[in-house]
Amino acid sequence: MLFDKQLAEVLENEQISAEEILGAFEVPKDSKMGDICLPCFKFSRTLRKAPPQIASDLSKSLEGVDFIEKVDVVGGYLNIHLNRKAIAGTLIELLNRENIGGSDEGNGKTICIDYSSVNIAKPFHIGHLSTTVIGGALYRIFKHLGYNVVSINHLGDWGTQFGKLIVATRKWSSLEEIAENDEYFLNSLYVRYHQESENNPALDDEARAWFKRIEDGDKEATAYFDTFKDVTMRAVSKIYNRLKINFDSYNGESFYNDKMQPILDELETKGLLETSEGARVVNLDEYGMPPCLLVKADGASLYATRDLAAAYYRKQEYDFHKCLYVVAYQQNLHFKQVFKVLELMDFAGKDDMEHIAFGMVSMEDGSMSTRQGRVVWLKEVLDKAVEKALAIIEEKNPSLEDKAQIAESVGVGAVVFSALWNNRIKDIVFSYDKVLNFDGETAPYVQYTYARSKSALRKGGDYDLTNLDLDAILDDDGYEVVKSILAFGEAVKQSAKVREPSVVTRHIVDLAEKFNRFYIGHRIVVDDEGVKNARLMLTDIVGRTIKEGLALLGIDAPEVM
Questions:
Q1: Listed residue (540, 549, 551) closest to 452, CA to CA
Q2: Which residue numbers in the chain have pLDDT < 70?
Q3: 249 in helix, strand or coil?
Q4: Which of 49, 152, 291, 526 is the most buried (most CB within 10 A)?
């Protein structure tokens, strides 16, 4: 809502705080009822007055406020109409801003975001898309708000699966062949191993023995392990580049091998560690959770042990304000247990840990499984989307320059946008038809709107800010565009507050829809200089805002399409 904070401060009195008023504001469903509505029912008990009387009394506080056009009292509602010219005049300030919607609210605060966390020796599949693009969007959104943000890829680079891969490599391939191939070849060996081990359980004993050699630093075993890691990182870096994802840290599970014992020692000292059937656990019965298993009976560590060590390391290394974990909701219990153990340890950052859960991705005929080879590879999805975009360009605009690059921007953008459109907690059933649908509320639609704005600006040329007929952009259609532009900053803040990139996604779609409605109903380049200048200014700011919004999501904004 525009000017909501200023209005709350004006309406504040000795009995009702600005914060209470701010929390009560609503946007009327019908814009003819006003721009902001204040239901006064909740104040009746405090003020000992009927809601209509409260609304009438409060309305007097708004007399003479320069950005208010008029105020209506309707029953117990105070409906506020803002002054359109005063609001439109603030648009000019945005022309001098490099970061539309940005702020310095995070100045001096560090946020760590743990996301993507790919597994070594496994290709990127569609199930990795959500954590990667949600985490990437939150990284950019927090940066936009002035935070120092540390992006962390907690690599899955430890476990018996590497022993399994060594066995598979020695039986059906070679170290040299692995080095010359890609992650898909590695995965094919992994799938074959599991098929063979069903009939030959002795393979699992071999795999455990090889992983033990990795743990012991055996030179031969480590050579295999390092090759698996190099091949995978070379491959995933290509995907990350396409998705505009960068990481400040790739410290994965293996990084914490020598950092877990001090955590276990502290738990022991504080009387939190117990032995249960040979394993070492923290009992959480009192908190309605099963015990947090930290050391198996055979002495092996677990995810929880490493996550505790990682929390301590990150607090010491970065002194974070918040530490966010963008991980599917399947891990809800895991994080509840880890966070509770940190609380019991009186960890310095115990109140600043957050699990940013998101929904699961399944296939139309069931869940995915890399062991069984039932997956949709992300590279294939991106490639198909780019192919479709290029085919559309060839059909509709064959003379377009840089067709391949624009197709990449449109196709990849469509896939990213599809993952950021819905509330993150929603489960997704993967469908090529849905992901490759470029119509409606999609990235290509928003990108096309941006390209349309740039085309209009090229046609209209330079505009003069000293000669603006603001009435030309203040009819109902234009005013909706103005309000959507000015509300973009609050959308970014809200997105960060609730850790939800879809707030930004939906806002730029809303802006695109409103601008296209205005564009269709109003010629931009007209003979009247004042009208033309105002409409070009509006078009320019719409384009800049859309470009900023797409950038926060990790999506390009092509100037021609």
A1: 540
A2: 1, 363-374
A3: strand
A4: 152
